[in-house]
Design a protein that fits this description.
Blueprint (H helix, E strand, L loop, with lengths): L5 H37 L3 H9 L12 E2 L6 E2 L7 H8 L10
Antiparallel strand pairs: 1-2
C-alpha cells in the first residue's frame, strides 16, 4: 500500500484547481462566442434578452373586487379568507351583501 503525503495531496489539489479554473475560463469564452454569434444571426440585443425575461409567465392574476368597505375603501375579491375589516363589520350586525360592489 502506497501512502501519499499531505504535501503531495495539497499539491495535486492546487494543480486540479488551476486546471478547473482554466477549463471554466475557456468554456465561458466559447459560450460567450456562441451567444454573440446567435445574437448577431438573429439580430438580437441585450434589451431583447431582458424583455424576454420580463415577458415570462404571469404569476397570479388580478381579480375584480366584489366587496368594498365604504369607510376605508378596502376591497375583497371574495377569494381566500375573509378580511378582518369585513369580519368586524359582519360582527357589528351588517350583512355581506351590504358591501357588494
Amino acid at each position: 500500500m502506497t501512502t501519499t503525503s499531505l504535501k503531495d495531496l495539497l499539491a495535486q489539489r492546487a494543480e486540479l484547481e488551476a486546471q478547473i479554473a482554466a477549463t471554466q475560463s475557456a468554456e465561458r469564452t466559447t459560450a460567450l462566442q456562441q451567444i454573440r454569434s446567435l445574437m448577431s444571426d438573429y439580430g438580437l440585443t441585450v434589451d431583447d434578452l431582458n424583455a424576454a425575461k420580463a415577458k415570462g409567465p404571469k404569476t397570479g392574476s388580478n381579480v375584480a373586487a366584489k366587496y368594498r368597505d365604504p369607510d376605508s375603501g378596502a376591497t375583497w375579491s371574495g377569494r381566500g379568507p375573509r378580511p378582518k375589516w369585513l369580519n368586524a363589520k359582519i360582527a357589528e350586525g351588517k350583512n355581506l351583501q351590504d358591501f357588494a360592489v
